[in-house]
Design a protein that fits this description.
By secondary structure, the chain is α+β, with helices and mostly antiparallel strands. The chain is 23% helix and 25% strand. The chain is built from seven helices and 20 strands. It has helices at residues 28-34, 87-96, 189-197, 205-219, 240-249, 267-273, 302-320; strands spanning 5-6, 18-25, 41-44, 50-51, 56-62, 67-72, 76-82, 121-122, 125-126, 131-138, 144-148, 169-179, 227-228, 237-238, 255-257, 263-265, 280-281, 284-286, 294-296, 329-330. It has a five-stranded antiparallel beta sheet, covered by helices on one side. Strands 1-2-5-3 form a four-stranded mixed beta sheet. Strand 17 (280-281) and strand 18 form a beta hairpin. The protein is globular. It starts with a strand and ends with a strand. Bound molecules: flavin-adenine dinucleotide and uridine-diphosphate-2(N-acetylglucosaminyl) butyric acid. Flavin-adenine dinucleotide (FAD) binds at residues 12, 42-50, 62, 83, 108-111, 113-115, 117-118, 120-122, 170-171, 220, 223, 228-230, 329.
């Protein structure tokens, strides 16, 4: 146990915050005894989707490891990963074993254990498409429960663990169902363009992963260079009627039709139209190439980033009448 431990290196925003106690756990028994404390606790993975706005009493860092194929049939392999494993290492493991399904999700930072929290997604694929089950430790009863896909109430950047069961479970492992017979998803235009630039003749999961990695490196700021947590807001989903009205008033507005008849708006475009792209106040800013990403240029506080996000929400609401919701966990 350490007193007043700095968390600056444990969050990709590089916000200066501290905790009175910082402990790592790599086994359920260890987790169970650490949870005996009466102090409020926070579970931390890679810290790539949190904005620290206060200091903490107890931070428990998930270091549970393990990565292996546990079951196979003709079409699928089931890979079980400890919650503390790196997400991208899991993707590399699948690519090495020629198992398909996660290639579009290459290079998303963070841990395996946090991946179901917001049903991570990118380039036309979401975690729920490959998720089979997870094991989670109930903080109050100390029982381990098994959740299948249908139990997790996955939605766009949502799950039961972010809502109804918030702060009740620690996810300890996740099992994925991967394809031996590959089904390629190149519906996202940027992937096709990148594959053409790469001069890929024969499609493979490895080529798709490589294309995704190249796109991500060109589009998103590296948290090791400028502190950030990826998209700060979710892309808002609105009715087709409202989209048609907005389209008349703001030609050029970017929206993607969803299967349920709604339209998903590009929040980055809305924020850019409000003049925020490249804005900087002190060390808190809105990234100059990707307006959906808020950044810390050095010593911004969590409160400063939070207050910038409030101003952005208000101005988007005023100009477009559309509500933005934060994707990043404010803690
Ligand atoms: P943390 O930030 O440590 O935690 C996130 C939340 O989950 C916290 O509330 C924490 O308490 C809780 N939590 C963490 N682990 C556990 C556990 N084992 N049990 C219970 N609760 C837990 N996300 C996408 O979906 N798509 C993207 O394309 C994407 N791109 C990104 C790009 C960049 C540059 C960055 C910095 C982030 C990006 N993200 C993206 C967000 C982030 O990578 C994901 O949300 C990731 O899953 C967070 O993992 P983490 O381990 O860092 O979680
Ligand atoms: N755009 C602008 N201005 C900007 C930024 C974007 O006009 O400043 C436009 C782009 O030109 C494009 C559209 O908005 O037409 C969408 O942009 P992009 O393809 O970069 O994707 P995004 O909507 O910004 C989403 C996810 C990302 C994910 C990518 C790829 C959300 C909230 N974000 O970003 O996820 O990697 O698509 O699938 O859904 C994350 O969750 O942290 C994250 C990075």
């Amino acid at each position: 146990m350490q007193e007043y431990y700095s968390l600056k290196d444990y969050n990709s925003f590089h916000i200066e915050a501290s905790t009175r106690k910082f402990e790592r756990f790599s086994a359920i028994e260890q987790l169970s005894s650490l949870l005996e404390t009466k102090l409020p606790i926070m579970i931390l993975g890679g810290g790539t989707n949190v904005l620290f706005t206060k200091n903490f009493d107890v931070i428990l860092k998930n270091d549970m490891t393990g990565l292996r194929v546990i079951k196979e049939d003709e079409d699928h392999a089931y890979v079980k990963a400890g919650a503390g494993e790196s997400w991208h290492e899991l993707v590399l493991f699948c690519l090495q074993h020629n198992l398909g399904g996660v290639e579009n999700l290459a290079l998303i930072p963070g841990s395996v254990g946090a991946s179901p929290m917001q049903n991570i997604g990118a380039y036309g694929v979401e975690l729920k498409d490959v998720f089979y089950s997870l094991e989670a430790f109930h903080i109050k009863t100390k029982h381990v429960s098994n959740f299948l896909n249908s139990d997790c109430e996955f939605g766009y950047r949502e799950s039961v663990f972010k809502n109804r069961l918030k702060d009740q479970f620690v996810i300890t492992s996740v099992t994925f169902r991967l394809d031996k017979k590959h089904v390629y998803n190149t519906s996202y235009g940027a992937i096709q363009k990148e594959l053409a630039i790469m001069k890929v003749k024969e499609l493979s999961i490895q080529a798709i992963a490589e294309a995704v990695i190249r796109i991500r490196r060109s589009k998103l700021p590296d948290p090791n260079v400028i502190g950030n947590a990826g998209s700060f807001f979710k892309n808002p989903e609105i009715s087709q009627g409202l989209f048609d009205d907005l389209n008349k008033e703001f030609p050029g507005i970017i929206g993607y039709p969803l299967v349920d008849g709604k339209v998903k708006l590009a929040a980055g475009w809305l924020i850019e139209q409000c003049g925020w792209k490249g804005y900087r106040k002190g060390d808190a800013g809105c990234h100059a190439q990707q307006a959906l990403v808020l950044v810390n240029y050095g010593s911004a506080s969590g409160q400063e980033i939070l207050s910038l996000s409030k101003e952005i929400i208000d101005s988007v609401s005023k100009k477009f009448g559309v509500a933005l919701h934060r994707e990043v966990n404010i803690v």
